Amino acid sequence: MLGFVNILLGGIAYGFVLFLMAGGLSITLGLMGFANMAHAALAMVGGYTAALLIGKAGWPFLAAVVMAGLTAALTGAILERTLFRRLYQASELEQVLLTIGVVYAAIAAATYLVGPEQMAIAVPAWLDGNLRIGPVDLNRYRLFLIVTGLVLLVSLVGLIEHTTFGAKIRAAVFNRRMTASCGIDVDKLYALAFALGSALAGIGGALSVKLLGLDPNFPIKFLTELLIVVSVGGLGSLRGTFLAAMLFGIIDVVGKYLLPEIGAFIIYATALALLTVRPQGLVGRPR
Amino acid sequence: MSIWGSPVAEPLLEIENIDVGYGEGVVVHDLSLTIEVGGSLALLGRNGAGKSTLILAIAGHLAPRGGRIRFGGQDITTMPPHRRCRMGIGWVPQGREVFAPLTVEENLRIAAAPGAWTLDRVYELFPKLKERRGNFGNQLSGGEQQMLAIGRALVTNPRLLLLDEPLEGLAPVVAQDVARCITDITQSESMAVVLIEQHAGFALGLARHAIILERGLAVRSGASGAIAADLDALEQHVGIRKPVRAA
Ligand SMILES: Nc1ncnc2c1ncn2[C@@H]1O[C@H](COP(=O)(O)OP(=O)(O)OP(=O)(O)O)[C@@H](O)[C@H]1O
Ligand SMILES: [Mg+2]
Which residues of A fall within a CB distance of 8 Å from B106? Predict the structure, then answer.
């Protein structure tokens, strides 16, 4: 029973990592209508940045995670300015083709620069081992993921729903032309939103290394998971993305524990079933 | 080189021989006009005459095929819409285009720029909006949406306000209310106004000058009083029997 509590904790922690990585994709895909298959590559940029800064440069853990977010944001912003923005008006197929190309370029670049082997990440002592709360030993790192994820979730929802910046994004998504005529540089706004989503992915990527490992195939391995989370959550809904990330995080971890033979298959079956019943996603409106 | 008014008045908007259209088709042909600082112009014409098309070109949403647009002496022919807004062109579109997923307050806040028109001043002008400041755009009546669309343009603190059929689809009482506010704004400000309105009487009563468009061509232009007195021209080009209340 006590073991199960930690399994569940692991599922929730994985759910938060999925949310951080998928949240940005939900913004770009759902709000801006841009199908960015390279989103998990931005998470990988964050993962490598953190792992290398800690392993090779001796940076403290938290500083490296923040830097991972900044590096991913910068990478995302550069990609958006140079490549992606040209395809905002293009068909989804063209967007997918271009960004899949970026995925393979990222895999090749990571293999060339860092090498094909698995990266490990060292976490500081205060995040290692278990924390004893009453009768249960809780894994410190998983607790840390949950707390960090909650803080970022609340900040993000607050940013989109309660600030002028968030209102501008909602306005631009609803009516781009009218937003421009309010004096808002929509291009710049989208670049900022894109960088924000990339920063989340970078932080998610950095925090995921200890949980999921990291190698150059990361952007492909997790692309499916992220797409499932975003589509089951409902395009453009952060709340939906969060619910779906939690659901799949828990189902995946607990499923693999209880039914090891078919564990890896469970999330796909669940996604299929959910999308059959609610094609618009958990929170999305019917289209 | 004002085509009307006194030669000393400073031009604010100068349009020279523009052609505007959609895709291949040209809708507005070879149009020229000048509006002075603080001036006012009524744009009249039947449905489909090209009035909104001309306004879209001024706001920057349609690129003219030929010709030139200058604002405050600066060539803005290729300037993007957000910069035109920041220079002082405020647009109240036909159909209002209020942001439905934003509250009334957010609709105003995202557009606000420093100047005499603040959110509080808009709330003073339209107390209804203040009552509904927490409501979302899609929870407003037609009249409230129109007030919001006007307020949203005002808080950008424009030097030129483009009003595209602001009374369209409003119940008569509400329309009167909105019309009174528009009159107040235009008379007490140094803000220039372009007004498109099916109620030709209201438009001619408000604006000093008027242009009648027919199939994209300016067929009449001049002082509003003269145009209002020319009932034949109004009937022929605008299709009203009698100006309701001319200046
Ligand atoms: N988006 C568009 N694409 C193609 N043609 C358009 C478009 N919008 C308007 N038109 C055409 O341009 C012409 C002028 O339209 P416009 O909207 O400027 O007329 P208007 O004078 O504003 O009419 P109304 O009084 O009905 O608003 C019409 O023939 C219309 O069909
Ligand atoms: Mg029109």
Answer: 164, 167, 170-171
